[in-house]
Specification:
By secondary structure, the protein is mainly α. The chain has 31 helices and 6 strands. The strands form 3 sheets. A two-stranded antiparallel sheet has the order 1-2. Strands 3-4 form a two-stranded antiparallel ribbon. Helix 19 packs parallel to helix 21. The N terminus is likely disordered.
């Protein structure tokens, strides 16, 4: 047979490699091969994992761990590793130019932080040929069109003709054929002369241009009216027909010129507001202390006159137009002065020079008063001078008391003020010129009134009390409004943002205020004190709320401790209602905290406490009934949002209605404790149907400890009970058991006789009965029934499809659910594999550590043996030396 030429021949390497593989396959130990058996053999199915080599796989894994995990273990907790983190050093594909560009870009990106996002290229200085753009774009010498043709001359370059003749035309060696040809030196001199001539002409033209420009600028104002003058006459304007403005254009113009919002000052923070409030109060307190000491600075809102020669030398004048300083055309003063000062009379007949001299003397005297400190010793002499002048000018004073010199009077008043400040006492003359005695007395009287008023005013700054007694002294003899102001100023002057320890100090102040409420509530024994107690509570509640917001944890803990203490006191006598202060705390709790929470560390104990009192306390006197109704009102306030049902409240209100039903010895009406079936304290005996009541609400006087129950209180208690029941019915209307909850109250209402009650009370009772009846009719109860069975479908003549089971379980689910289950299966599989690898890595590291330990122990034993052997040799040598010595 002929050979096939196109048959590919295998190389010697391929043949050799194949032979080695065959030899390795033949030399494989059959005991190392693991056969994976299958439960069910499927014909035609290819299985790649039917056989495995666990020994080979284990050896490969160990070898791989030696190169990876073992190397990491050796360098663990060691810092002798250098990392080159420069941009592009690890990327082998980047060239040197790419690395430089990447590093430059990183530097530029880092330079542009958030602060400079609006400053575009302000940090860069762009240059061109060594000059910045700002220097280039000054436009100091802009070139005009006229200068283009004369560019060579102005630029300082040589002329075209000269260059042609001197350089390219041959110069001195050119034969012109003309007589008297110019030499090179003559040409240069001619060129210099022409250049100087052109420069002189240019300078002259420039000066003429500047002169004309200045002249035009100076005459521009005269030209403006001619330019802006409208040449059209009024007749031409009337003839012109103005186009009608469209509504759309009109609206657009309004929107275009509409005022736009401007940037306002930023809102102040809480710390800045607190700091400003403190500074304001400190300033007001300083002014109050000055007023209390008599230092009053009267400020006028009217504008003050200032003349041209005013030197601010305490010149005093009246704002009345009669004394307004003015001058006529001749330079004389329009104000007529007719008075006497220091024995000298000043009138209309005096010369202006004398007045000027007097004014100069007075100014010198004022300068001496300001510079010297011995003014107080000289004032008696001035006052004595005034005494002597009184007798000379009595007639003048009687005739014209209003034409006195205001400036001198102001000086005298200031002197007496200064004397009063220094010595606290002053000796006044008996009679003064210009009625100064009366005016000074009036001034001192006003000062005394201002000082007394300042003493009675509240200080504007308060420090926090060191103890509860200090707070009581501060509140002593202060009304409710004053106590509110004191607390407000205490908080502002000691805000937590002003100092580090103020927050804890305000927490202590909160505890003191709670103690203050407890004291005023427990000390209220009459109607006036109870009313004052409620007024104080209403006044200081905003400040208590502010303190609670500044330190909520302290407020929670303080009120919990107070309620806990009150509950311990209540447990000593559980059948008696506590004092009035507990009602204040319950009301304060509803203001400070949220009462609609399912559980609350303060509200929940309050609910339990109030329910215990309504269930156990006896109801016999007027204060018991008022106290219980007050608690019911608080519970209604607590549950207005959460719609929570407390059985004790409904039981208490039903018991109050039971007390208004007349009892007979034949039939007893059942009632729940703490009420008794025979109690009839609220049964109205007298007829009050014709009496009119302005207010049927309960007052603070009803909380007095008085055993007598009046007819008026019986009417008001019944009316308030009916109104409270109506509120509770509306509040619990959404409950499915609403009818059953108020069924007992509906039965009691039918037995109450309202013939003797006023008309308002009768209407309230009928309204409540109608409301309960409507709720009973509108309520629909759904009875519990068994679930209806699904009707059985009729048999149809259709083939019955039976699913064939093929050995696999398929879940009927959506694509997303199937994908999620598949992902979870893969995740679970990977987790198992990861845990398996971790266990193998751990066992590998364990073997490495054991081998290292064994190696170190072996080395240590070898060293010990070597040391012992050396020691034995030394000992043998010593023994030999000893034997030689003994022989000798």
């Amino acid at each position: 047979m002929a050979k096939i030429k196109n048959k590919k021949r295998k190389t010697a390497d391929q043949v050799h490699g194949r032979k080695e593989a065959m030899q390795a396959k033949k030399s494989m130990n059959p005991f190392e091969i693991h056969v994976n058996k299958e439960k069910m053999r499927v014909l035609g199915k290819k299985n790649k994992n039917d056989r495995g080599l666990p020994g080979v796989s284990r050896a490969k894994a160990i070898e791989k761990r030696k190169h990876t995990l073992l190397q990491e273990y050796k360098v663990a907790n060691k810092s002798n590793k250098f990392m080159d983190k420069r941009i592009g050093e690890r990327n082998k594909n980047m060239t040197e130019e790419d690395k430089v560009m990447a590093r430059f870009s990183a530097v530029r990106v880092k330079a542009h932080n958030k602060k400079s996002i609006f400053n575009l290229a302000d940090d860069e200085v762009l240059t061109h040929k060594g000059q910045t753009l700002s220097e280039i774009e000054k436009f100091e010498d802009p070139r005009s069109d006229d200068e283009d043709n004369d560019y060579e001359q102005k630029s300082g370059n040589l002329e075209k003709d000269f260059v042609g003749d001197a350089h390219f035309g041959g110069g001195l060696f050119r034969k012109t054929g003309k007589e008297g040809a110019k030499t090179h030196k003559e040409l240069i001199d001619q060129l210099i002369a022409e250049s100087k001539k052109r420069k002189a002409e240019k300078q002259k033209t420039k000066e003429a241009t500047l002169e004309l420009t200045e002249k035009l600028d100076s005459e521009w104002k005269d030209l403006m009216p001619l330019i802006n003058k409208n040449k059209k006459t009024e007749e031409d304007r009337d003839k012109e027909s103005t186009p009608k403005v469209d509504d759309y254009d009109k609206v657009m113009r309004e929107l275009r010129f509409e005022a736009r919002g401007t940037v306002s000052d930023r809102l102040k923070t809480e710390d800045e507001i607190a700091k400003e409030e403190k500074e304001k109060l400190e300033k007001l307190e300083k002014e109050r202390l000055d007023r209390m000491q008599g230092f009053v600075e009267e400020k006028s809102n009217k504008p003050t006159h200032r003349s041209a020669d005013d030197l601010d030398d305490d010149f005093v004048y009246e704002s009345d137009p009669e004394y307004m300083l003015s001058y006529n055309n001749e330079g004389e003063s329009n104000v007529k002065v007719d008075a006497t000062i220091n024995g000298k009379s000043i009138g209309d007949n005096e010369d202006n020079s004398d007045e000027e001299n007097d004014e100069g003397d007075e100014e010198e005297a004022e300068g001496e008063e300001e510079d010297q400190e011995e003014e107080s010793e000289e004032e008696p002499d001035n006052l004595s001078d005034l005494k002597e002048s009184d007798g000379e000018n009595e007639d003048l004073e009687d005739e014209k008391p209003k034409t006195q010199t205001v400036k001198k009077l102001g000086k005298i008043t200031e002197k007496f003020k200064e004397e009063a400040r220094k010595n606290d006492t002053i000796i006044l003359p008996k009679e003064e010129t210009f009625n100064t005695k009366e005016m000074i007395q009036d001034d001192l009287q006003k000062r005394k009134e201002i000082m007394e008023k300042a003493r009675n005013e509240l200080p504007f700054t308060f420090s926090l009390p060191d103890s509860y007694e200090d707070l009581q002294k501060t509140f002593e003899n202060q009304s409710s409004n004053h106590q509110c102001v004191i607390l407000e100023r205490m908080i502002k002057c000691n805000h937590p943002s002003l100092s580090a320890g103020n927050k804890e100090n305000l927490g202590v102040l909160f505890a003191y205020i709670l103690q203050h409420l407890n004291d005023i509530g427990s000390e209220a024994t009459n109607a006036k004190s109870i009313k004052e107690c409620f007024n104080i509570f209403n006044a200081i509640v905003p400040q208590i709320y502010e303190l609670a917001q500044l330190n909520p944890d302290n407020a929670h803990n303080s009120l919990r401790e107070v309620l806990k203490e009150k509950h311990e006191e209540y447990k000593k006598s559980p059948k008696k209602y506590p004092g009035l202060e507990l009602l204040l705390f319950f009301k304060l709790v509803s203001i400070l905290f949220s009462t609609s929470d399912f559980r609350h560390q303060v509200i929940t104990p309050c609910f339990i406490f109030m329910e215990q009192m309504l269930n156990k306390c006896k109801v016999q006197t007027q204060i018991d009934i008022s106290y219980g109704l007050f608690l019911c009102t608080l519970i209604l306030e607590y549950t207005s949002l959460s719609k929570r049902y407390l059985p004790a409240v409904v039981n208490f209100l039903g018991g109050i209605l039971h007390m208004t039903i007349p009892k007979t010895s034949v039939k007893l009406i059942k009632v729940s404790p703490p009420f008794k079936s025979t109690s009839s304290h609220l049964v109205l005996v007298e007829d009050k149907s014709k009496k009119t009541y302005d207010n049927l609400k309960l007052s603070s006087a009803d909380l007095l400890d008085s055993s007598e129950i009046t007819e008026d209180f019986q009417v008001r208690a019944f009316y308030n009970t009916v109104k409270l029941i109506e509120e509770f019915v509306n509040n619990l209307k959404d409950l499915s058991s609403n009818v059953e909850i108020f069924q007992g109250i509906a039965n009691y209402l039918k037995l109450v006789k309202v013939d003797k009650y006023p008309k308002v009370v009768k209407e309230a009772k009928l309204s409540l009965e109608k409301l309960l009846e409507n709720n009973r009719k509108e309520r629909k109860l759904e009875f519990i029934v068994m679930e209806a069975k699904k009707p059985k479908a009729l048999r149809l003549y259709e083939p019955k499809i039976v699913e064939i089971y093929d050995g696999k379980k398929f879940k009927v689910q959506s694509r997303e659910k199937a994908a999620r289950d598949k992902m979870l299966h893969k995740l679970k599989k990977e987790q198992k594999g990861a845990l398996r690898e971790i266990r193998r890595d751990k066992s590998f590291l364990g073997r490495v550590k054991i081998s290292q330990k064994l190696q170190s122990d072996k080395e240590r034993k070898d060293k010990v043996k070597r040391i012992f052997s050396e020691a034995n040799i030394q000992q043998s040598e010593l023994n030999a030396i000893d034997r030689k010595k003994k022989r000798k």
